[in-house]
């Protein structure tokens, strides 16, 4: 089973990554097909994960896109049936490989994911701090990707992680809900990881209040019951109390400016009481040393207004938001007129000349883990104007200039041959998808004429037209999506607008 599993670890190069890799290298048992490290740092020295005992390691880089994008790049570049996600600050148990194999064995087709179990060690010689208690909540959280294995097909079906979640917060719950909405099940396995409490600064609890905006996004995407136990199982927390305390503070300020001292004093007392109650709830279960108490007092005054501010920011930011579709799994390009300048019935590799921006556009797709291919009508073969060997020579030159391509399809037939491959027939599109294991609904076809658009529609794929001087106005008017340039078309794809 592990031969059909890739382990994906997004990382920003923290020292904890070395601890994780040491644990994976030392663990006995079978090895997965590969370990994909996704370096999410904007810059930095390349990761050097060389250790005997690790499965084959591959490092890919996002350039700094955040945890959702990093995980997406990891699973998109893997080709196994299962993708097991691990965070870079966890430590798998010694039997993790063996338990993972057991957890995935014989799961029914209705099961899309298996979550590992998490322990969070807390200090034994003192009471835990507020930050430590918060981290301990991971032990009972649902569908967190600290250790969660998904079927790759389930990830592809929903477009993977929603990259509009910029932090390592709620993006895993959102993915789980979208996958369960397809009718698939998620289960809990028997493998274990340890999630140590990371060292943190004094103001971390203030910074994490930005997650309130992500909660608004969750509500907009999944409805008011998204927190329910049978869904994300996410407690509401103290946001209503934070809103009330913030309202009391604003009322006190407004009443004071209106020269109503009595009412202002009452509102201020309400704010002080609410803030004190919040601070005590955080201080009482903790170690109560000087550093913890002063931190709790300071941050308890700041958290309510910041939580309210970020919640309001989310309300404004996420108006009219639509469910994440993600990137396509495959983008197929027409050749002549789209990727290269059109020289009719060209059989000379020297005349294969890319259009402006073609290389950059293709590389941008590859950098995000999207596979690319070519579907090209070559009726010059049937007409006796060029040979099949010349077509192959031109395709080879295309690959040298713009490759590598994951699939190259061409039709040598003429318009009167009644084949099922010549565009607008869907044959080349369906063959490309079938050969790569891609659902046509997760494929985009980019071309310059109606035949490209019609072939995509017939196959169940999405089409984007990039008109050229030979494109008829009627074809442009009928196209469901039109982009001015190849660069713009690929930009739309990368933005999820396809």
UniProtKB/TrEMBL annotation:
Gene Ontology cellular component terms for the protein in this record: cytoplasm
Claim: Metal-binding is one of the keywords in the record: yes
Disordered: region residues: 40-65, 110-133
InterPro entries from the UniProt entry: Glyco_trans_2-like, HAD-like_sf, HAD-SF_hydro_IA, HAD-SF_hydro_IIIA, HAD_sf, Heptose_bisP_phosphatase, Histidinol-phos, Nucleotide-diphossugar_trans
Glycosyltransferase 2-like domain boundaries: 6-121
SUPFAM superfamilies for the chain: HAD-like, Nucleotide-diphospho-sugar transferases
Family of this protein: Belongs to the GmhB family.
PANTHER family assigned: D-GLYCERO-BETA-D-MANNO-HEPTOSE-1,7-BISPHOSPHATE 7-PHOSPHATASE (PTHR42891)
Protein's name in the database: D,D-heptose 1,7-bisphosphate phosphatase
Protein species of origin: Blastococcus xanthinilyticus
